[in-house]
Amino acid sequence: MSKPTAMNEKHENLSWRARWYEVIFEADTPAGKLFDVLLLIAILLSVLVVMCESVEAIRKAYPKLLVGAEWFFTLLFTLEYGVRIICARRPKRYIFSFYGIVDLLAILPTYVIALPIFEGGPSAQRLAVIRAIRLLRVFRIFKLAHMLSEASALRQAIWAARAKIAVFLSFVLIAVVIVGSAMHLIEGGRVDSDGQQIVTGFDSIPESMYWAIVTMTTVGYGDVSPTTGLGKALAACMMILGYCMIIVPTGIVSAELAHAGGKSQTTQVCPECMGEGHAADAVHCKYCGAKL
Amino acid sequence: MSKPTAMNEKHENLSWRARWYEVIFEADTPAGKLFDVLLLIAILLSVLVVMCESVEAIRKAYPKLLVGAEWFFTLLFTLEYGVRIICARRPKRYIFSFYGIVDLLAILPTYVIALPIFEGGPSAQRLAVIRAIRLLRVFRIFKLAHMLSEASALRQAIWAARAKIAVFLSFVLIAVVIVGSAMHLIEGGRVDSDGQQIVTGFDSIPESMYWAIVTMTTVGYGDVSPTTGLGKALAACMMILGYCMIIVPTGIVSAELAHAGGKSQTTQVCPECMGEGHAADAVHCKYCGAKL
Amino acid sequence: MSKPTAMNEKHENLSWRARWYEVIFEADTPAGKLFDVLLLIAILLSVLVVMCESVEAIRKAYPKLLVGAEWFFTLLFTLEYGVRIICARRPKRYIFSFYGIVDLLAILPTYVIALPIFEGGPSAQRLAVIRAIRLLRVFRIFKLAHMLSEASALRQAIWAARAKIAVFLSFVLIAVVIVGSAMHLIEGGRVDSDGQQIVTGFDSIPESMYWAIVTMTTVGYGDVSPTTGLGKALAACMMILGYCMIIVPTGIVSAELAHAGGKSQTTQVCPECMGEGHAADAVHCKYCGAKL
Amino acid sequence: MSKPTAMNEKHENLSWRARWYEVIFEADTPAGKLFDVLLLIAILLSVLVVMCESVEAIRKAYPKLLVGAEWFFTLLFTLEYGVRIICARRPKRYIFSFYGIVDLLAILPTYVIALPIFEGGPSAQRLAVIRAIRLLRVFRIFKLAHMLSEASALRQAIWAARAKIAVFLSFVLIAVVIVGSAMHLIEGGRVDSDGQQIVTGFDSIPESMYWAIVTMTTVGYGDVSPTTGLGKALAACMMILGYCMIIVPTGIVSAELAHAGGKSQTTQVCPECMGEGHAADAVHCKYCGAKL
């Protein structure tokens, strides 16, 4: 009689895991939604703690509060990570999935910094490493990706338009390389009356390309800007090109999406009149009235 | 015989209120339109007065004119507020509605500043409060919202696209947090030869995030800009990302609206099953097959 | 026998005017197209002359050439203006039309400056007036409007979307007024340790509104930018608002145009099956095959 | 018996050339794709070499490596150019085609600089020429155009919208000329107390137009910005105009593309009249009424 008990136990165990699975991994049930909202708040608060820590005034004013909050969130996310591994149907698959790695990276930095290696006198080298590791914690923001179920439509749209976006980006980059080189030729390499080279921000092609990107994307910091007449004319042409260029790809993506989105028609064919183009909710053929 | 008289009186009273109601709250009748236009001009002029007051040269040149105009508009809006309360079918509902609160806030500041508390020797503290209250009057501009009946289409479009806009904004903010942190790591925390920290504008994550927002939205003030090669490369990537990102959501909103607006459905109702939403070229009801 | 001659003469005269009318006012015939292209070149060259004149180095190098070119184009446009008046079917209507006034304004400045009033010793006052009048000549560029026949589609689209553009602009301006006032409160009116007011570029509401427009349209000069933490946070919110705001109206205009443009269907109804939605080039009903 | 041999030889020769032709000029076969990918990598690497050479620090650190890489890529592209000429069906047509000229220009600069003329003492004049020629090599990036087969859709879209883009650009340029001239009048030509002219960046119409383009395209460097109240007001109007202007053409292009792409026409050809372009739901040919 031990077998059924074991089975029951296993069943109960399974159902216990299944129930937790639904709460943690899915967002259909009220409990699952509540868990998601609480986790969202915890992620945002923990990112806020990292941000506050980077501001010197706050770090010096509340050192204990920040360390306490840090450990609170680390333990919370460690608990979450553990429960996710226990509940997951295929733990290994979860661990090596994108979200599994993000969840692990969200807790590791705090533990790593607590290691004895990082104790003792703070040499500059060691401090820089600690600083980098501490900042890694901000990548917890990626945990939000769990919740972006709505993003799938966006992802599909980007995926569908990937060829066009690639062409668009290639075109932008080719323009950036050519205009950057031309501006390097026009604005760079000038010397003053003493034969000293003047620093213009166009002194190498990569620097000119940085300027070209800043200009073409209409950001326009103004830390580097052309000073010669020819350079200004070329810059003006590039701005108008960049301004026009945003119009055409926007139109293409819109048209593609409008076309794709308008296809809510089934591929059903009327058995009587072979009419096509029926709406997804059609029961009868709209041309001859026959049942579909 | 007093009853009918009372009724008549009440009826006349009602119709008097009803007539005013139409003039003040609606814009269908010529009188209602005229009232709206006059109110629009009064709002714009009163906002202009607040603006002029904030310019020191004008404030000193025409002090009496500005105070007079201020009281004129305050009394005008007080009168309007009173009539609205009297005419409104449910006065309480109006008072606590968005527009009721805006209308009240449009007149309060002038009265509050005239209170005896604010008289006497002008201490700096008291002056700052007065200044803040005076500026509150500029929120009269919200009274314009009464007139934006056309905005409902925009509001619906934004409401329909709210999920997509939220995803878009989440994506922007995640990118801002990550790039901001990375730039803080790359550009911030540098020391000069004396061991003094150099102020770069990337000295904390919030400051870096401010830079990231300025860059990603293509505003690009240039008050903070990267100076290291790695920082410039990351900034260039972010600009191109921000440039591409405006394309996809625009396309999605366009497609959604085109789909919604372009359904070109007739308002025909099936005589049999009362089904709606038939395509313009439908001959038979797509639900029951009856001839339309 | 004088009557027929007079008629013939009048007829010939008419046909001579009619022929010139076609060449000058229309662009269907080869001669009309050639005239338009030559006029286009003349306009662009004359604008180029005005531009060159404003550059001091060029003005001093070729003073006679510029004056000569100036008089050449003025006489050319005077000739054109005269012929247009002679050929026009209703000369008065042409003279007081938009293009008539533009054509007149294109030639007046040169004659006005040649008047004896402007001769003699060049007082500063007189020079400023001359300078303003000379620059007026650049408005010759409006003569190009004659040729923008393609612009009618754009004009119609803007006209159709005028209500939405007005709502959009109202919303932008309300946001500019409110954010400008808030920034004036946050960033303006600060005093240094000596009690002297610090000039921040947010010293009055109009100045703050200028900043708000520069920011919201993503221009971002950087001549004025927030320096306090709260001001930067508000600026960041405004930038994201401005970035999102460009998406929704673009989508609305696209959808409206897509809807309008997609209606290349005739309103023709099949006389047999009453089918609608036929393409403009359809000869037979696409449902039953009957002749339309 | 020599004839058939010759024919065979010619045939084999032809097939050898045909096989190479497919690999080099087309991208349908696996070998063709591999060739394209390898060429892509070579182009990007060779452009990278040119870029590195323009950075002084890298040029001084690895002079031999860069020269070696330069000659390696030049010989590689020379080989490619030679094989392309041999394999091309009409060598002359290839040589004088856009791609043929680009391929030639990609290899020429290295050979030209190796000529004895450029040897000997480096005079400044000679160095500038060498520098310009060296930079020409960056135009190798145009060789990428071979691979942008996806770009044809974009090119078609731009071609279809050329009239509208031309109108849009004309409108932008007219606005730039007029606002530039007005700003030159308002901001330029001011003198300080000593009668000296102040340099404002609006000292000539071309300079003002440069500012107008920087502003209208929302780049906004901030190297030139208005300082007077009137100038700021005009600049604000121009920014809002530029902000609105990007909406309408985007909508027009989107609508045009949506219309073109959404025609959902079948590729069906009428069996009677050979008419094409039938709607997906057509039963009868819309031209002759024959059943499809």
UniProtKB/TrEMBL annotation, chains A, B, C, D:
Any one GO cellular component localisation term in the record: voltage-gated potassium channel complex
Assigned keywords, A-Z: Ion channel, Ion transport, Membrane, Potassium, Potassium channel, Potassium transport, Transmembrane, Transmembrane helix, Transport
Record InterPro entries: Ion_trans_dom, VG_K_chnl
Domain (Ion transport): residue spans on this chain: 33-259
BP terms from Gene Ontology: action potential
UniProt-annotated location(s): Membrane
GO terms assigned for molecular function: voltage-gated potassium channel activity
Protein known as: Cyclic nucleotide-gated potassium channel
Signal sequence interval, chain numbering: none
Highest taxon of source: Bacteria
Residue intervals passing through the bilayer: 34-51, 71-87, 94-118, 124-142, 163-186, 233-255
Bilayer topology term: Multi-pass membrane protein
